[in-house]
Amino acid sequence: MTWVRFRLGLPSESWLAEASRTHPKATIKATGVRTETTGAVLLRVAGTAAEHVADTLREHPAVEAADPLDGDGSETTVHVVGDLPPILDVTRRTGLPTESPARIIEGVATVEVIGDHDRLSLLGRRLARAGVDVTVDAIGRDGDATRLLTDTQRELVHAAVEAGYYHTPRRCTLTELAERQGIAKSTCSETLQRAEERLMSRFVDEAVPRSLLAEIDAETAGAGEDAPADVDSGGRRSGDEREVTA
Fold first, then answer.
1. What is the pLDDT of residue 171?
2. What is the CA radius of gyration of the chain?
């Protein structure tokens, strides 16, 4: 699976964009839940009084209601009913899990998603057709690098770094490192080699998804012209579906 962090310039007519641009000091985190005809969205607002943001939202024609709820002192939750913003609607319909709520500052949203190559490309195309300016900010493999190594490998690698084994020039020989750890020189060598193999393989794998960056850029640039029909999360052709642009 591939992890991507998108930077998304929201359409000017979006109520989410208008609220964040009207209140540039506000940091807004958004999650959305689709209902029959409208979207129910929870916003967590920090940096600006939530009531001011709610007042701005109520003036937008695509918003039916905006009500501040509870807060913890640093953030206040605002419940919004209205057309679901494209960054939430498209991500939901593409079937991709997000790592955290979308974070919006001054009309630009940061969204982190995990998925396979095809779905991430599909997400980029759909967002572009919805009027979103799509930029790939970061890309890589999903997973924690610390899980690559066994406890023994991780402990020895840390000891080697601290002892200066990987410095140039080396401050510690393999024999000295093995003696410090109380293990045979052959065991020390083999353990480090296995750890290095795993880490270097991971490093090379991290570069593979970067081919996706160029593909997403190319596809989103031409998304408005003769874009091919897509396949949605249920396997249905969706090239003719209408995208939400509120």
1. 92
2. 24
- 72: tokens are 């913890």
The helix-helix angle for 210-221 and 117-129 (nearest 10°) equals 30
The encoded tokens of residue 71 equal 């807060």
Strand-by-strand arrangement of the 39-46 sheet: 63-71, 76-82, 39-46, 27-34, 102-105, 108-115, 2-9, 133-141
Domain 145-206, second-level architecture: Orthogonal Bundle (1.10)
Question: How many whole angstroms separate alpha carbon 142 and alpha carbon 135?
Answer: 19
CA triplet 144, 148, 154: central angle to 5 degrees?
105
132 touches 11 (CB < 8 A): yes
Question: How do strand 76-82 and strand 39-46 relate by DSSP bridges?
Answer: antiparallel
Between CA 21 and CA 4 the distance in angstroms is 25
Q: How far apart are CA 74 and CA 77, in angstroms?
A: 10
pLDDT in tens, 121-153: 889 889 999 899 998 887 766 555 555 677 788
Fill in the DSSP letter of residue 38. S
Which stretches of the chain drop beneath a pLDDT of 70? 34-38, 72-73, 99-100, 140-148, 201-246
Q: How far apart are CA 15 and CA 120, in angstroms?
A: 25
In the chain, which segments carry CATH 1.10.10? 145-206
pLDDT in tens, 197-215: 877 766 665 554 555 666 6
What does the block give as tokens for 209? Answer: 């998804």
Quick one: CA dihedral 214, 217, 221, 227, positive or negative? positive
| Encoded tokens for 125 | 């195309």
